[in-house]
């Protein structure tokens, strides 16, 4: 049985955004069952857990002696198990992987910079000075991405893939503002992917874990 690590509790703003959601979603799409190991705050820094995840983060993926960390690497491993998330022809597979890297390396850093300013430092003078430049970076990326998605429903291969899981979860970090909604094709893309039954099951599973622990 696949085992997935997740945090036992997180601040309210992070619920539904923690990166184990990406892995839950991928597993739901391909129909692989999994168990969840919920970590308390003191457990994530234990020597036992740091042996699995050197930085004390989530998720960790365990399967038949294989231990993986980093959500992008985990998604590629899961996607390679099933054509549901990864096309089998070499060229299409390479392009899907390129878009996976794009989500994590081209889009996510700028999105997270803006999110950190908005959620944690919006009242700081340095943040007020820096925000316009960070917003401009996101807008530049989103303009290009919106143009791409204005021509097709998904990023590559004419269908949903692992790249769309990563890109969607990156975009969801901006749910505190209306930035994505300003780009019609991008907004439709986000809503299309969030409407997938596998996404809803994954999100519900993460939120139930938080609710169960709060009630315990």
Descriptive notes:
The longest helix has about 30 residues, at about 90-120. The chain has helices at about 20-30, 45-50, 70-80, 90-120, 125-150, 160-170, 185-195, 195-215, and strands at about 1-5, 35-40, 60-65, 65-70. It has a 4-stranded mixed sheet, with helices on one face. Strand 1 (about 1-5), helix 1 and strand 2 form a beta-alpha-beta unit. About 55% of the residues lie in helices and about 10% in strands.
Short description:
By secondary structure, this protein is of the alpha+beta class. It is built from eight helices and four strands, in the order E-H-E-H-E-E-H-H-H-H-H-H.
SSE topology sketch:
Elements: E1 2-7, H1 20-30, E2 34-39, H2 47-50, E3 60-63, E4 66-69, H3 71-79, H4 90-120, H5 125-149, H6 162-171, H7 184-194, H8 197-215
Parallel strand pairs: 1-2
Antiparallel strand pairs: 1-3, 3-4
Helix pairs in contact: 1-3, 1-6, 1-8, 4-5, 4-6, 5-7, 6-7
Residues in helix, %:
55-70%
- End-to-end CA span: 26 Å
Strand content: 5-15%
Rg measurement, Å:
18 Å
Sum up the structure in keywords.
9% strand; alpha+beta; globular; 216 residues; 4-stranded mixed sheet
């Amino acid at each position: 049985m696949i085992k997935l690590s997740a945090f036992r509790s997180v601040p309210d703003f992070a619920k539904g955004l923690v990166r184990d959601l990406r892995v839950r979603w991928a597993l739901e799409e391909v129909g692989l069952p999994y168990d969840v190991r919920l970590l308390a705050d003191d457990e994530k820094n234990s020597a036992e857990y740091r042996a699995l995840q050197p930085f004390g983060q989530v998720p960790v993926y365990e399967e038949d002696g294989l231990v993986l960390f980093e959500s992008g690497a985990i998604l590629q491993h899961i996607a390679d198990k099933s054509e549901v998330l990864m096309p089998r022809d070499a060229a299409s597979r390479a392009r899907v992987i390129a878009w996976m890297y794009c989500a994590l390396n081209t889009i996510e850093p700028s999105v997270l910079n803006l999110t950190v300013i908005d959620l944690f430092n919006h009242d700081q003078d340095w943040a007020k000075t820096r925000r316009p430049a960070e917003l401009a970076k996101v807008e530049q990326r989103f303009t290009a991405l919106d143009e791409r998605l204005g021509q097709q429903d998904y990023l590559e291969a004419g269908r949903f893939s692992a790249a769309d899981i990563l890109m969607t979860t990156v975009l969801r970090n901006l749910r505190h503002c209306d930035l994505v909604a300003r780009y019609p094709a991008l907004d439709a893309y986000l809503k299309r992917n969030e409407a997938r039954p596998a996404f809803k099951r994954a999100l519900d599973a993460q939120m139930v874990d938080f609710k169960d622990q709060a009630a315990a």
